Amino acid sequence: MLILSLAGVTKTFGGLVAVAGVSLGVERGQIVGLIGPNGAGKTTVFNIITGAVKPDDGHIFFSGRNLTGLRPHRIVALGIARTFQTIRLFPRLTVLDNVLSGCHCRLNSGVMASLLRLPSQRLEERLVLQRAMSELEFVGLAEVWSSPAGSLAYGDQRRLEIARALATEPKLLILDEPAGGMNEQETANLMGLVARIRDRDITVMLIEHDMGFVMRVCHRVLVMENGSLIAQGTPREVRSDPRVIEAYLGQGED
Amino acid sequence: MAHFIEQIIYGLTVGSVYALIALGYTMVYGVMKLINFAHGELFTLGAFIGFVFLGTLSWGSYFGPALAIGLTAILVAGSTALAGHFLERVAYRPLRHSDRLAAVVSALGASIFLQNVIMVVWGAQYRAFNASLLPTVVWRIFGQSVSLVRLFVFLTAVIIMLSLYLFINRTRLGLAIRAAAIDQGAARLMGVDVSRVIALVFVIGPALGGLAGLLVGIYYGQINFNMGQMYGLKAFTAAVIGGIGNIPGAMLGGLLLGLLETLADAYVSGAWKDALAFVALISILIFRPTGILPERVAEKL
């Protein structure tokens, strides 16, 4: 069953065609890699899916709903969360507060309940606190919950971004270069983490330049070049596709 | 010495009012990076709405002072919040994606407009509150005379500020405001409805400013259509002293400015009071534009 599909999505910035009529589908429960040379339009595709950028043409469907033109916080509420290529935590807030900010959209209490501290709202706050702490345990950051997010090591900040995204209770998690800047040990841990996320029935879509990572973690790989999808398939199929080798693995790598 | 302590009490009272108004500037700046120049007029509006119920209708003589002030406070907060919301819709929201200077010009225009509306409705002369609203009780504390009205103004302002502080720091909605103040884009992608946060800030800030107007009316007994100009400027100064965008900073800045003013009034000269307040503003802008709080405490919002 397709959880996400794009139909003829196009986006131009000025005269530059960033995404040119991309159509793709993502199966529920899979880990899907999106690869391609720099400037191929991968991050723009992610920005379009999450509503940060509006496409000029085409449609995005998620669990049978048309997302096209919805505002970002509505898309999050429907179940798509993301992390960023360059870390965008709230550096001055604590680790826990960062994760709690992700829980925001799952709260029902309104302004008045919050101001009056009604019992229903207090119960909700307590449950949310437990959820946030369990996400921190899931990524292994529970001990540092009270530190400012900006003080964490780089790899830990990446994991905190994942915890914050998971706190929105997504059905689809989008990771933009999750292994970027990580050392080998951290990357190995990240592979385990991504697999455990998938085990929670969360579909994962990721952009990554570390080919070893992509080939080992992903069930399917999509390849973009100059704004178009040039190949897709299992890692093995993609690796042997002549167009991909020419466009991307050109130097006979692997 | 006794004189000095008396000045301190005066200063804290005036300062707590500045602090209350300053919170409105600082919250809006924190989230939108915009100085809401019409904020002083929302303060004046609060004072005049208080005047309608406590002066014109003299609710104090029907309900007794406590109930009359309580009811009036709710009506003042509600109507200035509504006015603030309307202001955001009409003057700022259409300009959210345009140049920042456009929003500043719009803010100045809104300020002039509101001031003139208040003048047309209530007239250009000074209006007097019901003078005998609060009984003129004076206590002697440590040899100092402290009047009921002064204590009332100070304590009310402090209670309102503490509630705001707890709201911002202890509730999820407060967290959404803090998150939006740091990175609107990331907050949006974490499911925070940033438009709603902005609307909320434009409801809370004006409500606080309106309540400050009511307190000034009760404290000084008379109000005027352009009083918001000077109070707005002073409160803006207080917000800058504490570091604009910083909530505890605005509270501290207000109290400090109040103290500075009354001490200048008592020991230098009344004529120099305002000049010294603005010397403080200019010095902070030149030497410590992030405000007097140290970096770690000086978190935006």
How many E strands of chain A?
Answer: 10
Distance between the termini of chain B: 38 Å
* Largest sheet entry of chain A: 6 strands, mixed
| Total of helices of chain B | 12
Given this structure, which CATH class of the largest domain in chain A is correct?
Alpha Beta
Number of domains of chain A: 2
Q: From the helix content, strand content and strand pairing of chain B, which structural class follows? A: mainly alpha
Multimeric status of the protein: heterodimer
Averaging pLDDT over every residue of chain A, what do you get? 88
**Adjacency order of strands in the biggest sheet of chain B:** 1-4
**Structural class of the secondary structure composition of chain A?**
alpha/beta
Examine the secondary-structure arrangement and name the CATH architecture of chain B.
Orthogonal Bundle
SSE run of chain A:
EEEHEEHEHHHHEHEHEEHH
Shape category of chain A: globular
Summarize the amount of helix of chain A as a percent range: 25-40%
Low-pLDDT residue spans of chain A? none
CATH topology assignment of the largest domain in chain A: Rossmann fold
**Greatest contact between two chains:** A-B, 35 and 23 residues
Strand order of the largest sheet of chain A: 6-7-8-3-9-10
At CATH level 2, the architecture of the largest domain in chain A is 3-Layer(aba) Sandwich
Features:
heterodimer, A: 254 residues, alpha/beta, Rossmann fold, 2 domains, six-stranded mixed beta sheet, 10 strands, 39% helix, 24% strand, B: 301 residues, mainly alpha, ABC transporter involved in vitamin B12 uptake, BtuC, two-stranded antiparallel sheet, 12 helices, 74% helix
Write structural notes for this entry.
The complex is a heterodimer of chains A (254) and B (301). Chain A is of the alpha/beta class. Chain A has two domains: 2-79 and 170-247, P-loop containing nucleotide triphosphate hydrolases (Rossmann fold, 3-Layer(aba) Sandwich); 93-156, no CATH class. In chain A, 39% of the residues lie in helices and 24% in strands. Chain A contains ten helices and ten strands. Chain A has helices spanning 42-49, 72-78, 95-103, 111-116, 119-139, 154-166, 184-199, 211-217, 235-240, 242-247, and strands spanning 2-13, 16-27, 31-35, 57-62, 65-66, 80-82, 172-176, 203-207, 220-225, 228-233. In chain A, the strands form two sheets. Chain A has a six-stranded mixed β-sheet, with helices on both faces. A four-stranded antiparallel β-sheet of chain A has the order 2-1-4-5, covered by helices on one side. In chain A, strand 4 (57-62) and strand 5 (65-66) form a beta hairpin. In chain A, helix 3 (95-103) runs parallel beside helix 6 (154-166). The longest helix of chain A has 21 residues, at 119-139. In chain B, helix 1 (2-32) runs antiparallel to helix 11 and helix 2 (39-56) crosses helix 10. Chain B has a single domain (2-287), classed as ABC transporter involved in vitamin B12 uptake, BtuC (Orthogonal Bundle), CATH 1.10.3470. In chain B, the strands form two sheets. Chain B has a two-stranded antiparallel sheet with strand order 1-4. A two-stranded antiparallel sheet of chain B has the order 2-3. In chain B, a hairpin with a 2-residue loop joins strand 2 and strand 3. Chain B contains twelve helices and four strands; from the N terminus they run H-H-H-H-H-E-E-E-H-H-H-H-E-H-H-H. With 301 residues, chain B is mainly alpha-helical. Chains A and B meet through helix 2, helix 3 and helix 4 of A and helix 7 and helix 8 of B.
